[in-house]
Amino acid sequence: MANESLSAAKAAKNDEFYTQYYDIEREINAYLEYDPDVFRGKTVLLPCDDPEWSNFTLYFAQNFQTLGLKKLISTSFAPDSKRFKTPYQPSLFEQDAPQFDPSKTCIKGKIFELDHDIDGDGRIDFHDLEWHYLEGDGDFRSREVTALRDEADIIVTNPPFSLFREFLAWIVQADKKFIIIGNMNAITYKEVFPLIKENKLWLGNGFHNGNAYFRPVGEKDYANGVKDDTTGLVKFRNCCWFTNLEHGRRHQPLSLMTMEENIMYSKHKEVRGKGYAHYDNYDAIEVPFTDAIPSDYEGVMGVPISFLDKYCPEQFEIIGQTQGDSGKELGLKPYPRELKELNPSLRDGQLYYLENGIPQKPYARVLIKPIKESK
Ligand SMILES: C[S@@+](CC[C@H](N)C(=O)[O-])C[C@H]1O[C@@H](n2cnc3c(N)ncnc32)[C@H](O)[C@@H]1O
Questions:
Q1: Which CATH class for the 2-250 domain?
Q2: CB contact set of 235 (below 8 Å; sequence gap of 6+)
Q3: Which of 79, 171, 255, 294 could connect to 259 by a Cys-Cys bridge, CB 3.0–4.6 Å?
Q4: What is the pLDDT of residues 278-332, one digit of tens each?
């Protein structure tokens, strides 16, 4: 019951965060640097958007020709269907349009489409977007938005935080290319990690210095974000982009020191002068920091989840992770009863190592193995 009310409270959190133009441009540039034609001739769908306000729509519409898009489709969710409701006032843009319908504005989603020059200025851009109300409320799971998904080649958006798993499954089902924003913790979800392991999904280029700033709608319930009163933006430390499109940073191997060098010079006191613990229930060493991965260790290593932001598939192979029941599937040995008495927080299926005879439990770990020796 306690768990149910916690989920209900979480579910009621604000999903209305708008991505900044700069962040979208910076991320898309990373894919363009790798392949300048990545969007050429493609239909891009921006679901879960609010095209009148969204910088995703603005960015792709303004760069329609530079990117060589075939078609841009952007859909919004009806104000009355939003979980986090704020007083709704249709924009002047909507009210001035001949198709404006006061009986639909709150209950229908909208679709914006762009594929040719309408205003005759010789350019295809934001001013050429055409829109109408959807049949339904624009829920991405609806039949009509699902049909748009099927028509699209690439799906780009910042989906509602609370529906991330469902949203990703919706894209993966249709085997589409995507660039979407999510919480870093999603890496360990049972729906997400297997895709990472199989190289079907990876982290995107990322937010500047790992800090994501979004423009909030509404004045409270910023989930895990913190509002900066000067800029009005809400900052999240743990947001990242998830994608299955190639970008250059993904293929840059980490520059690492050998084990001996780490023990002598590591900036981390946990490693310097101490070395690396070996897990007691799995044949791997504990590496508490990504920059402390020893370049010359050839076996399996347990590294922080944030390693995946630096993961280069040519440098390391992903063996597994230890969240939830995954540890048991990896064959982690159960804790001996006498150790449980020394540290009652231990749970079978989690890694542990012994420090002065006391079992220690590391944070969530990803298990990796070098593909070849890299120095
Ligand atoms: C995190 S906001 C992002 C908005 C915009 N994509 C951006 O980043 O600027 C997620 C948006 O998805 C909408 N949304 C929530 N549930 C939805 C659903 N089931 N189907 C479609 N959109 C939904 C929310 O109302 C919100 O506008």
A1: alpha beta
A2: 211, 212, 213, 225, 226, 227, 228
A3: 294
A4: 999 999 999 999 999 999 999 999 999 999 999 999 999 999 998 777 777 888 8
